[in-house]
Write the structure tokens for this entry.
Amino acid sequence: MTSTSQEWKFTTKEIAEKPDLFLSGHRACAGCGPATVLRLIMKATRGPTIVTEATGCMEVVSSIYPYTSWAVPWLHTAFETAAANASGIEAALKVMRKKGRVKDEHVDIIALAGDGGTYDIGLQALSGAVERGHDFLFILYDNEGYMNTGIQRSGGTPMGAATTTTPAGSVIPGKLEAKKPIAEIMLAHEMEYVATASAYYWRDLLTKVRKGLEVEGPAFLHVFAPCPRGWRSDPAKTMEYSKLAVESCVFPVWEAVNGKRQLSTPSKLIALAPQKKKPVNDYMKGQGRFRHLFTPQNQKVLDEIQRLTDERWEQLLKKCEPV
Amino acid sequence: MKKVGKQEMMALNGDEAVAYAAKQSDVDVVAAYPITPQTIIVERFSEYVANGEVQTEFVCTESEHSALTACLAASATGARTFTASASAGLALMHEMLFVTSGCRAPVVMAIANRALSAPLNIHGDQSDSMAQRDSGWVQIYVENTQEAYDSIIQAFRIAEDVGVSLPVIVGLDGFTLSHTLENVKVLPDDVVLKFVGVRPLPNVLTHEGKSVPFKLDPENPMTMGPIALTNYYFEFKRQQEEAMKNALEKIQEINKEFAKMTGRGYGDGLVEPYQLDDAEVAVVCVGSTSGTLKTIVDELRQEGVKAGLLRLRTFRPLPVEALRSALQSVKAVAVMDKSLSFGANGGAVYHEVRHALYDNKVHPTIVNYIYGLGGRDSSTSELRRVYEDLLRMLKTGSVEKPVHYLGLRE
Amino acid sequence: MSREKSWKEIAPAGVCSKSSVGFMTGDWKTYMPIRDLEKCTLCLTCVMFCPDGAIRWRAELGKIEFDFSFCKGCGICANECPTKAIKMSLEQE
């Protein structure tokens, strides 16, 4: 790590007492995964922070003029621009600090985007900003679809999922392509810190946000964030699905510091005790977007999903430091 | 502003003049992407950065879209920003042009005017920035590299004026100006610095109930770029229109101030009339071709023809009053367009000049000459023929045809 | 209901003028969480997981406070409570 990383220690009560910087009164759906993710992320800030966000669910629900749910400076410009915004903000602060026009203090910059603004339309700006080495933390809240515009498929939508542009039809059973391995792509950029996290494991999430902020340069955090509306799942089970995704290895949690990858505790436990690994069906069966797969003619899709999950999990184990 | 003493003469092409002006203007952030014929601007500027001659963060973005976005975000953080583009690069920025204006970010952008694809063409015409005339940017077009230098410096003052707070495009014809070496009188560094000053920030009321400077600042959090629904969006757009109105005044003011300081004024800043007082026939032109036309006007005047020229310097905001009064006694007007608005019976400048003159009691004959598309050169004899056409139309009393294509192989 | 502002009165560029804590989303809910305080161990899991920040730890009072003016009735708190101290019930008047 760039700075001497004394791992940030915190108690539940300390976090609970910290005032929310992502405020109540936002218009997210009941049970929204990304909303919890955002609340938690903002608990891990360490000082002056500026947030810039791409168009998407969290941007829209938190900034309906004249209301704002942001207690920190916040900028939104367009859909593909979270990382480009961060580049501009970082460059401006750097030079204005030199010229004595702003306080000589470090300001953390967080670029926030959904899977739309990261995997697809936002990928160019993200890749460019990382290559240029800007000091910012890019956090992807992944609800696996373009949810704000009506649940259309994205590069982050998993295989088999029904979305409004990959509906479960009589000929084509949902999205056929696998989920783009975005964290692998970002890892290939040779960044100092790339990690994945899931909201259920909130301590792990907070630790990773803080680590990402501490990097002097770009860092990337991929956070799993279930969407009950888009996934047709029970809003009460949003955190449960965040847990099941990790337990079934659909969404393993890990972190890579300077390319050295380690499984994080929740996934490590499964690597150590493979009998604890849950079948993907356990994760998928309560979600309406996968319901059409639980029919005889689509059994092969379920099989393929299990196979792909297992394959990616095995590959990940090989790439990680031994447990 | 007192008149500046000695002004050094430098041989600069249009791009170099622009880069030099930006260098002297204490720009904080330049985020840019290269595209012919603007490349020399970014290359020259990066040399300044590499040699420590400027205190500017230079961000080589991965596309023009990100270039303008980074400038916008930097501007939102309180920085003075500059960028440059042309043609397809400007087209790629299209979405963000509207956003930049909507966010009231005073970004200054030089456009080395170049034709749009398809087919691909790297040469000069004005279709790129003409196509962005609805985006809420001030647009100033220059006649020569001296004016390019002068206008970039002025642009920072126009854009950053608290009553304007709009981004500004300075257009210079691709290759004709961008790559042509001319004599440019440059101002001393300290004079430019004093003229542009430090960027002023308007105060805004935030959700914390405080009235604070308009910038992203952890001391005074504010939310910029929200979603405004049907009950608010319209009001924000009206504000931008009001800003354009203020720009009309500000451009004239700055032109006057600059003229007093340097001895160089460009008409009233909005339009530059040339031998127009008693002109019977006149041409309205945007950009460098005005220079050639001035020579032709002189020639015609020698021959006893009452010819004149109106150079339209500021295209946005459209100086309706200035156009109206400048052309009110002209009998026949030819409007030159170095771009074409397909399916609209002529080019943008033609449409807007006609619109400006419609409320006059007497209407002159107004015709349109589309010329120079894709960098096609117009010879002096071709341009002279425009005046000859006007004289003939006056004599015969018939318009022949409203839209002509100068230099097109029919 | 105050009159909405004219174009001359609002801040340019859409700088938001109100905090969302002035916008009560509590009337969205159909079900509301009911707590059995005897079962509650103050683990604060519900405080962490509430998407709306409607469950707060009031350190000075040593209590967990449910803010029903923001609670949307999603039921995450009830689903995740390790001691099943929260039950969702149809909202009463």
Notes: Chain A touches chain C through 40 residues (CB under 8 Å). The domain at 12-319 of chain A is CATH 3.40.50.970 (Rossmann fold). The beta strands of chain A are 49-53, 67-68, 74-76, 108-114, 137-142, 193-198, 219-224, 254-257, 260-263. Chain A has a mean pLDDT of 96.
